[in-house]
């Protein structure tokens, strides 16, 4: 399982999409209580759940990990944690995945300039209040020091999504080969 961690608008969603279309990964659709954004589709971008439904599932041990971020719950279902998949989580989720000792987990941290991220958030139509909140929260929440193990840190500046995706897949495959030896 390839785990991508990156602050808001670091480009992780685009990379995950390309990993599925160009390299055959399955994107894990996670679950959230956050409100759906204009361009998002239920069941594709997330499973959008009510608080009650989320908490009920959480109590029934449906999730391998959950996290509270920006006032909303996020969680990955046990049933979705399969081998050739890509998972996007925030640091707390990554730490819990690491604790479960799932085989072949490869953790990638995306580093993206704040100015680039701000511009992307404006382009995707986020409100200025949301942008300011995310930028401030992410400074603390997404600090790489909060992540207990990282396999690869990639700086996303000056590289296209295609290049970044190829590098990440190569690194992951090389790591798998090394483990098989
Ligand atoms: P957004 O609301 O911008 O789509 O996502 C906010 C953050 O939640 C992102 O950093 C994303 O990686 C993270 N996230 C999405 N799904 C999950 C999940 O199932 N578990 C955890 N821990 N984080 C998630």
Number of DSSP helices? 6
Which sequence of strands runs across the widest sheet? 2-7-1-8-9
Regions with little confidence, pLDDT below 50 for 5+ residues: none
List each distinct ligand once.
guanosine-5'-monophosphate
Order of helices and strands: EHEEEHEEEHEHHEH
Task: Give the N-terminus to C-terminus distance in angstroms.
Answer: 19 Å
Coarse morphology: globular
Number of strands: 9
- Kindly state the percentage of residues in helix: 40-55%
Q: Please, what is the oligomeric state? A: single chain
| Strand composition percent | 15-25%
Gyration radius (Cα, Å) is: 16 Å
Mean pLDDT: 95
- Overall SS class: alpha/beta
Provide an overview of this structure.
It is built from six helices and nine strands. It has 181 residues and is of the alpha/beta class. The strands form two sheets. A five-stranded parallel β-sheet has the order 2-7-1-8-9, covered by helices on one side. Strands 4-3-6-5 form a four-stranded mixed β-sheet. A hairpin with a 2-residue loop joins β5 and β6 (72-77). The longest helix is centred in the last third of the chain and has 20 residues, at 161-180. The radius of gyration is 16 Å and the shape is globular. The model has no long low-confidence stretch (mean pLDDT 95). It binds guanosine-5'-monophosphate. Residues 8, 30, 34, 65, 67, 69, 74-76, 88-90, 92-93 line the site of guanosine-5'-monophosphate.
